[in-house]
Structure formats: structure tokens, C-alpha cells
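Bug: C-alpha cell stream looks shifted between consecutive jobs. Job 1:
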Amino acid sequence: MGDTELSYYLPARENGVNDMYLHLGFHAPSGNLDRERIRLVWAILRIRHPLLASKIEMHSYDDIRFVYTPPHSAENALDNAGNNLEYRTQNKDELIDSYLNGPRTLSNDRISYLIVSFPSQLQSGAETMRCELLICAAHFLGDGMALHQFANDFLGLLGSSTTSELASLLSSEWQSHCGKGDQFGDLPSALESRFPAAKGKMADIAARVDFDRDQKKLIVNWFIHCTATNVTGIYFRAANHFLDYPETNAKR
């Protein structure tokens, strides 16, 4: 993990502080909401974005890693997606309340999860049905914008292809990302690894001082914002306190 990822991971280990979710409620043709179609789309996107299918290994505070085990076949990818997908019959408020106030959904072994809820049965003669979609992800994976982009990709696939086309796409994606016979799967590099290295000891010290000043400014601004306004947007699981801080795997 990079430093930015660690700063979100460490406080969230026990109670899931800041675990993200995105809720989308919509009506769609019942054929487009077939469970096999949903599982196929979820499997395709987990292959495209392997961090969603990764686990976390914490050996020490200085050695925390993403571990990704690539699926050994398209069928295995589909099974893995199904194991991280749940169907319910809750309405929007019940769905969100259970995520925010119930037992934590995510963990080191499951850092993303998809919940699909059909609050009511399809009425006779109705062409569409109501669906409540809850996309759950640990905050150290990304931000709200990334979650919205993921949702756009998810709904785009769900509504634009036939089930057989989705199955063919899954096979193609698996072959492209996992079927090359590489010993390790590819994971995106940490944000910090993409920065140019500091040139010299003084440059490194100056960068650290600048970072500490920015952090203090962010804390002060956040405190002023929270005391001056009502925060009504619900995107993160909250907590009352912060805590102290033989398969082929890809790690970083």
C-alpha cells in the first residue's frame, strides 16, 4: 500500500470508518435485471479493476499489502463475483441503514461488495421493475468520483448487451487480463510511486514539511466546516471514534 492508501486503511480496520457506498435506485426491464446478467457484469468489472477483487494482508504497520489471486478461468471469475454479490428485498432506507448501522459488510478479505435489492415483486403485465443497487467499497480503493464512474460502467454494460454477449465479453476480458500465463496478476501502482523522486536530502525534507503543513490546513478547514454547517450527504459508514493505529498471488 502507498501512504495515501494507508492513511485510509488504518483507521478503518475495526469498525469500517469511512467505508464507501453508492446507492442507485431505478426502474428497468425485468430481462435486464436477470441475476445471471448482473453476475456477469460484476465479474467483468472485477477483472478490469483487480483491486476490487483483492484482499489485504497486514504483516506489520510498515508492511500492508494488496493481494490479488487472478481467477484461473472465466467460470472461476464468475463464481468469485457471485460470492461477493447479495440479493435482498429491502427498500432504499432499509438497505442504507443496514450498511451504515449494522455489522460491517467489508473486511480485509472482502474490500468490495455488491448488493442488489428488489423491494417488490414484478407485477403482472408490468414491463419494468424497481431495483435498489448498493455498491460498497473500502475508501482506500478510491473516492466518490471513482465509484460514480464504476456505476456508469456497470449500468452501461447491464443495459447494452445480451446475456450471451456479456458471457463472451467475460471470456475475452479474462483472456486479456488473466489468461496470459503470467505468474502474477497486475495491480495498479500506488499513487506515490508515480511521483518523481525528490532530488537530494533537502528536497526530501522540504517535501515532508510542505505535506505536514497541508495536512494541518485540511484538518482546520474540516473542523470549521463541520461546526458551521450541517453535513447531510451520506456516502460513508461513520464511527464515534478512531482506533489506534499455495495460490498465485500479486502483491504490492
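Job 2, same session, no restart:
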Amino acid sequence: MRRSLFLRIVEAVEAHDRYFQPALDCIGRSAISSLLKCTSAICMLAYGNCADELDEYIRMGEATSLKCLRHFVCGVKESFGATYLRRPNSQDLHRLLGFGKARGFLGVLGSIDCMHSEWQNCPNAWRGHFTRGHGKPRVVLEAIAYADTWIWHANFGTPGSNNDLNVLDHSTLLDDIRDITAPPVSFTINGNHYRMGYYLADGIYSNWPLFKGARKDIERTFGILCCQFHILAYPTRFWDMQTLKDVMYACIILHNMIVEDQDHIILSPNYDPTDDYENAHVDDAPPAMGYQARIDCEATLRDKVMAKRLQRDLIEHVYQKFRGHDFNN
């Protein structure tokens, strides 16, 4: 994380939460500065340290470090969540279509998968709800990422007794599609026209036109996220679910801010932002919503014949696009 980004975060949480603003302690001395409080919180997120491990480095007690962390993650989520956890707008979807076109996947909207985080201090009364089989209690994160590892959809808090399909049923991912409020994506491939984008997923997801099996960018994104914030790689030691959610969403927001700040956008040499995306485009406005329209949309969403046809069209398109290409050069 660059210094300029760190100072931007400090200014935002200081303006949002009085806890980070300058104050005096009980004997009239200056209290701990906002820089130290934010440094303590980021150290705990980045290294997964216990709160008392920062005593010698920052001269801050365990209770104060934990309090700083809770205030910090809440401040980050409320200050930056609307920007860095937003759903893609038309401009974002155009960029996604550009990524997909350069890689041979017309109409792809990202990669979807789930990550299971162990909950070490899960209350005994909830262990059966959060445990699958004879394993340990876990909490599930469902996420969708771009090719540049930007995470635009995150749903955290589903009990670990659920598999990926059950998590999808509890997710809000498909609400915009079913309500016909999402910007419709249209693309043509091998002469067949499709009015719905799709996500790259593994084999557990249903055979719908919305999901296509492939090696996913989201797996790499999960690896980067856990390397950046070791608190996610270790068993979670917090007791309440709300703190778990705040920590997870704060880490995702910080990750997206780092991706934006360091400009880690993976673009193909053939990517042109002014291209027409090879007959793939985002319509200016979604169609009018009605009861019959929602029924038709749900039927299209679950159309297995269309899913098979799209899979065959993508295989043929990728083969024709990269046939004879030397990937070693």
C-alpha cells in the first residue's frame, strides 16, 4: 500500500468517526493519534497478529488495539463501500466485455466462486449450523472478480454447512437479473444472439446459460487477498458475526483500492477501449419490468438447451480465434 493511499484512508476514517479525531486523555495529554490507530488496525489485518503483539511496536494495549480494529473496519466499509463494492455500471460492463473479447470469451462478466473461512471462536450453540460433516465451523464468502482481480460482488456470512449452490440461493447476485433492473448484455457468437452475460464457474454450479466452466480469475483473487491480509488466511478469532463481516468487507475494499491505486489492470495487447467488442454490447436501458417479463427471464436463466448451445459456440469461437497461435512467444 502506497503512502498516499494510506493517508487518504486515514483522512476518510478520521472524518467519519470521532474515535480517530485528535483528543486529550484523562490527564490532559494528547491521546493516540489517528496515524497510530490506523497503523495498528492495518498491521492486524495484514499480518494476522494478535492484538497484544503490537504492544512493543506501537505502544498500544490489547484492548485499545482491538477497539481500533473494530472502528477502522467499520469506517472503511462505510466511507468507501459505496464506491469499491459497487455493482458494475454500464461503463464497467463495457470494460468487462473488452476483457472477455481479448481472451476469447464474448459476454463474460467475471468469475464466481466461494471461499470458506474457518471460525475458531464460533459459539457452541452455532457450531452445528456452521459445520459441514465432521469439519470445523466455517463462514462462506461468495465473490465475483474481474480479470484484474477487482472484486465487484461479495456476499459473506453464509454458514459453512452450505455448499456453493446453497450459497447462491441465499445470495443477491441474481436479483437484478430476475427483476430486470441490471443493464442487459447482448452479444452474438457463431451467428447465435444472446441477451444475457455469463460467469466463469466450476462444475458444482447448475448448467445454466449464466455459468460456464473454466479456470477462474477468482481463484487467483482469493490467493492474492489472503496474501495481502493474513487475518483471512488464519482461523477467525472474533466472537460476533458482525465483526467478521466488517473485517471481510474492509479487506475486500482495501484490496480494490490497492488494485486501483497501483493500476494492476490486466489488459491484452489486442485490447482497444474504443472497439465494438465484436458484436457484444450493453444496452442503454433495461426493458420494462412486468410479471410476464420476469417469468420469461427466469425461464431463460434456467434454459439448459441454451446453456449447451452457448458452450459449443464458445468452444468453436475460442478455437477459431487462437488456432495456430504460438503461446510460447
